[in-house]
Amino acid sequence: MWSRRIKIRFVSVFIIIIMLLVSCQQRDYPADNEQLSHEEQIVIRFSHVVGENTPKGMAAIKFAELIKERSNGHVEIQVFPNGVLYKDGEELNALLRGDIQMIAPAISKITTLVPEWSVMDLPYAFKNADEVHTYVDSAVGQSLMNKLNVHNLLSVGVWDSGFKQLSNSIRPIEHIRDLEDLRMRIMPSDILAEQFSSIGAYPKRIDFNTVFNQLQKGNVDGQENTFTNITSKNLHSLQDYLTVSNHGYLGYLLLMNNEFWNSLPQNVQTLLIDTLEEVQEWEWQLAENLSSERLQEMEACDCITIHYLSAQEIQQWESAFDPVYDYYAGKYDSKYIKALPKNQSLH
Ligand code: LMR
Fold it and tell me: 19-58: per-residue pLDDT in tens?
């Protein structure tokens, strides 16, 4: 009798221990982060070059907050905005070296590593952000993504900034010929250089963080950027004319160092991917809303003369940029151009 009771106790204790072990294993993250040693925490340093009041800046903060909350602090995303850690032209190498784990550069800046990505820089390649998202998800989009893997990079999402507009301090730009002889700041991309040189302007590659200075010093006459980037750096205060041309998409690839990614536990990878998917949707909407808000602010500031290209002007501009497409087709696989939405409707 006595030995039966002991047996029952022993079995119950055994079952409780097993249940405790199983529940510990099932828990995704340690409940109390205070008990984690420094080494057990996963830190992801995320560097970018724009302000915290831009779609990218705000989405990076939201991503960091959600991950902290959902992992009980086990995973920490440290966001470094405004190029405080690494500037344009530095951050990609820092990621490749493994000094940081995540960046979100403009796609144009990836073209120095994978030039085929410059298909996204072709003028009037896309009418709206939805077209961009569909293209990136398509088979050719995937083949562009695969080219990143060769460089130990993994793309974990695409965020929008919006469509680029033109500003300058010399004259209103209504016709394409108005751009002739203007010195225009561009991001590092051969296609962007070609876009301006093909119509007689002078492209100048300049880091985002020094654009304000360069415009102020008169080293360039104008620049192209999205509404949120123009206002966040107060570029419109230095420029007299703005043309709402929507001539090119500016968006970001969220990149991680592949080797680092592979070192992460499966549950952390899942948490990051799920959260990024959610943040991406949120960011797309935010970029759209903020773009209209910033345009309204510029309309109201009475500080810059704004010209809106008409549908007819847009058509003329688009044909004027045909040589840029030929330039791309002469260098890279034409499948990337053929798959653009505007060429899809031709089939
Ligand atoms: C620029 O250099 O103009 C942009 O890429 C900045 C950014 O990251 O939006």
Answer: 444 443 444 544 444 444 556 799 999 999 999 999 999 9
Q: Which two tokens stand for residue 234?
A: 């107060």
The full set of domain ranges for the chain reads 39-343
Closest ligand 1 atom to Cα of 109 = 5
Q: Is 225 in the pocket of ligand 1 (CB under 6 A)?
A: yes
Round to whole Å and give the CA distance between 326 and 64. 42
Q: What's the distance, CA 160 to chain centroid?
A: 6
pTM above 0.70, yes or no: yes
What is the rounded distance in angstroms from the CA atom of residue 102 to the CA atom of residue 48? 9
What span, in angstroms and rounded, lies between the C-alpha atoms of 226 and 277?
23
Q: How many other C-beta atoms lie within 10 A of the C-beta of residue 134? A: 13
DSSP code for 266 = H
Residue 202 in tokens: 């002078």
DSSP letter (8 states) at residue 265: -
Q: Give the position, in ligand 1's atom list, of the atom nearest the Cα of 207.
A: 2
Verify whether ligand 1 is closer than 6 Å to residue 208 (CB atom): yes
Residues 6+ away with beta carbon under 8 Å from 229: 50, 54, 161, 208, 235, 250
Distance from C-alpha of 75 to C-alpha of 43, rounded to nearest angstrom: 6
* CATH superfamily, region 39-343: Bacterial extracellular solute-binding protein, family 7 (3.40.190.170)
User: Which of 184, 225, 234, 249 for mutating ligand 1's site (highest number of atoms within 8 Å of CB)?
Assistant: 225
Residue 287 φ/ψ, nearest 5 degrees: -60, -40
Distance CA(163)–CA(150), nearest Å, equals 29
Kindly report the protein residue whose alpha carbon is nearest to atom 5 of ligand 1.
106
Is the minimum distance from the CB of 106 to ligand 1 under 6 angstroms?
yes
Ligand 1 midpoint to CA 208 (Å): 6
Instruction: Specify the ligand 1 atom closest to the Cα of 54.
Output: 9
Report which protein residue has its CA nearest ligand 1's atom 3. 208
Structure tokens at 82: 């405004």
> Band of the pLDDT at 344, cuts 50, 70, 90?
confident
Give residue-wise pLDDT tens across range 71-129: 999 999 999 999 999 999 899 999 999 999 999 999 999 999 999 999 999 999 999 99
